[in-house]
Specification:
Elements lengths: L3 E2 H8 L10 E2 L2 E2 L10 E3 L12 H6 L4 E5 L6 H4 L4 E4 L2 H16 L2 E6 L4 H14 L4 E3 L9 H7 L7 E5 L7 H9 L3 E4 L7 H4 L2 H9 L10 E5 L3 H9 L3 E6 L5 E7 L4 E6 L6 E5 L4 H16 L4 H5 L14 E5 L2 E6 L5 H14 L5 E6 L8 H15 L3 E5 L4 H9 L7 E4 L5 H4 L8 E6 L7 H12 L12
Parallel strand pairs: 3-4, 4-5, 5-6, 7-9, 7-10, 8-9, 10-11, 11-12, 12-13, 17-21, 18-19, 18-21, 19-20
Antiparallel strand pairs: 1-2, 13-14, 14-15, 16-17
Length: 475
Amino acid sequence: MQPFTLGRLAHAVGATTPAQPAAVARGVCTDTRSLEPGALFVALRGERFDGTRFVAQALAGGAAAALVNADAPLPSELARDPRVLRVACTRRALGDFARSYRSELGFTVIGITGSAGKTTTKDLTYHLLERAGIRAVKADKSFNNEIGVPLTLFKADEHTEAVVVEIGTNAPGEIAALARVARPDVAAITCIGASHLEGLGGIEGVAREKLSLLEHLRPAGVAVLNADDRRLRAAATRRAGRTATVGLRHGSLRARVRSRGWTWQCELLAPDRPVQPFELPLPGEHVLTDALLALSICAELGLDPCRAARELASYRPANVGRLGKVEVGPVTLIDDTYNANPESVLASLAVLCEVAPPQERVAVLGSMLELGGESEARHWAIGEAVARLGVARLVTVGSEASAIAAGALAAGLPVEQARVVAHAEEVPEALSGLLDAPRTLLFKASRGVALERGLEATAELLRHPTPSGARPRAA
């Protein structure tokens, strides 16, 4: 981050006038565990925490100043400390300062949202920019909320040319608020699906929320949309501003599949350019759309998409829980435990079917959360898909996920091929009899299910069989 004076900070966020306005801070921090000396500590308040409790610790640890809520009670010695600056709301101040910082430095901002694929699209975009020699930064992990977006912008400095921001939501108005902070030059939307239905009020509410990102593009900004999504395709035809479209079936930038599996072999079909073969070392047809979005974003930044496509082969995913592969003996574990909604579960099931023959397919599926009144129907539909796609065995985890089993049984999955458990720790026992033969196990659930615990316990059982030395025999 570019160093800044406390006077500049106070002006941007409406803080009390600092005693030493020329004093310089280097960095912004919201967690004392990662505080660097000289940084500004922002004392955020949430439902289960209050950063005001750590102001003294932050200042003792070398913080240049601390930003606190005006109504926050402080011990008298802290209240008189000239390094303590007060604002009406530290959360709002964090966003206000990020917006000011973004405007002053003038780097290009790429904002990415969607019901699935945000993080993969962000990571692929950053990879291609980096390979092209563009000095870029990106959001860490899934830093896509009112705290993560400002912190991503603060990673930039005077040398940064592009910042890749991930923008998420679970309530109406959140994307608009974050977009007003980031003010993207390029806004990409991966898809519109049944995520956060409880907070957004149905699929049309999801569409309105995601599309609100486009309303906050900077002048001359461009939207990059997945035209295979019918709602986004319709939005592209209605837009008056600059719009680029991608897809496997629709869009100006498309891909043709030559072979599939853990690594895709494809051809890029770009307007006015020769067909470009490329390789993408990620499973799942949905990741091809993410790659096309990344290529289109790069094209809008002036890069040749065909040349960029050749760089996809060198991409290596770093995120745990996002279609990672772990092989233990004859068993392959697919770790897609980071999060889940109906669209992403269907995409992951498609991956399972692409990489494993029918008799080896095992789906361990946990509850999909925040689906509101549509929860049972959405889980039931996933179960029907499990049966339709020819998954050999099903284990469901969590109360909501029991409807997946019910849907699968109703659609024809034999009753002996389904197990229902309440908690992730019960998964290894539920898989008894399946782990001594070639199998591919998909683990997928919403974050709150903590299904990674079931995956880790299963991997441990595979690495260290029962004391008798033999795993339970396959049925």
